[in-house]
Amino acid sequence: MTGQHAGGDWNLPYGGDLFGELQLAETASDQAVRPRETLFPGVAACAVGSAAAAWLSDHYGFPIILLGLLVGLSLNFISHDVRTHRGLDFASRSCLRLGIVVLGLQVTLAQIGALGLTPFIALLAVMIAAFFAAVLGAGIAGQSRYAGILAGGATAICGASAGLALYGVIGKDRLSQAQFALTLVGISLASAFAMSVYPLLAAEFHLSDREAGFLIGASIHDVAQAIGGGYAFSDVAGSYATIVKLARVALLGPIVALTSIMLGGGKDGPKPSFWRRLSMPWFITAFLLVLLINSTVNIPPRFSQVALTASKALLLLAVTATAMRSRMDLLIEAGWRAIIPVVTATLASFAAALAFAIALL
Q1: How far is 130 from 123, CA to CA, in rounded Å?
Q2: How many CB atoms are closer than 10 A to CB 351?
Q3: Measured between alpha carbons, how far is 218 from 227 in angstroms, rounded to an integer?
Q4: Hey, where are the domains in the chain?
Q5: What are the tens digits of pLDDT across the range 145-171?
Q6: Residue 134 scores a pLDDT above 80
Q7: SS3 category, 164
Q8: Rama region for 111: left / alpha / beta (φ>0; ψ in -120 to 50; rest)
Q9: Rg (the chain; Cα; Å)
Q10: Count of other CB atoms within 10 angstroms of residue 29
């Protein structure tokens, strides 16, 4: 059917159809509005969810990253509104990168040097064991190798923070946001469990303060849980666990850079040249520069504490936004197999850390 207009014919299928014309007008209106979309709707929704997670964590003592994931997943329906997409994407990417950069203010080269050569080599061995155990677990569970790389790297370095950084390199074209969200849930749960159980196991194995500090600092994923678990054993173990854990955090930059070199370009895009692949993501370069500055300049403790709070807030916004953008149907489809790489990496890191603690310290 065609419609007649004073200026000529409309060769449209909806000519003379009032409903069709309204439909076209609405579509044209939507397309006209999209370029003017702002960050506010998505960022505001993410901020409200993150604030709820922070309140729950403060009042009930649950890991804040885990609560951010759970609150974000519960608010997943918000992402059905396209007006939130730009803000949620901004929070999941830009807030993540800024949070990683600011995290560099928590580590110094002196702290790494205080660990000593033998414990540092043992720590590297624990991290390697965790990484390859995750890749093996991903293969056993029928998951992609990218799921193993994500789980292994996050377990080996510093939990959810490292997982966020690694996912920025891996990309959602290789690994779905649903798989990523489930991996972070598994890491957060494993960290909470380990913080409660590992000090008891260390006492059961009659470990010294130094041995217990190495075991806890080398095998618990998230920074807060590792430090808390160390001090749950003793003050000396807590101090040593902090040094061991911060040494793992300092390796975030090199490991993410190696992962970027190994993976190269996007899954379906052209592979960049070797020299191009050697270039690190800008936020990892900035993290290393901030770490070097923190190692050479005397940063006031008050400023470092503010920076730590800012880093936690930015990473919480990033993980909440990522959870909001995750598709629930893919979460259900992934099921329990999605956390197998985290389980195998957790078991391997504990076994390796316990063996080195007993044999070398």
Answers
A1: 11
A2: 15
A3: 11
A4: 41-54+63-360
A5: 999 999 999 999 988 888 888 988 898
A6: yes
A7: helix
A8: alpha
A9: 24
A10: 9
Task: Output the six-digit token pair for 37.
Answer: 């979309």
Q: Is 226 exposed, middle or buried (0-12, 13-18, 19+ CB in 10 A)?
A: buried
Q: Mean of the per-residue pLDDT values for the chain?
A: 82
CA atoms of 123 and 204, how far apart (whole Å): 22
Q: Could you identify the residue written with the tokens 């936004």?
A: 321
- Beta strands, E only, the chain: 3-5, 8-10
CA triple 181-187-192, angle to 5 deg: 125
Q: What is the pLDDT averaged over residues 314-325?
A: 88
Higher pLDDT, 333 or 123: 123
Distance of alpha carbon 317 from alpha carbon 336, whole angstroms: 26
CA distance 12 to 1: 7
Cβ atoms of 98 and 314 within 8 Å: the answer is yes
Which residues, in sequence order, are CB contacts of 9 under 8 Å at separation 6+? 2, 3
* pLDDT the model gives residue 108: 84
Residue with tokens 């379906």: 268
Mean pLDDT on 206-210: 93
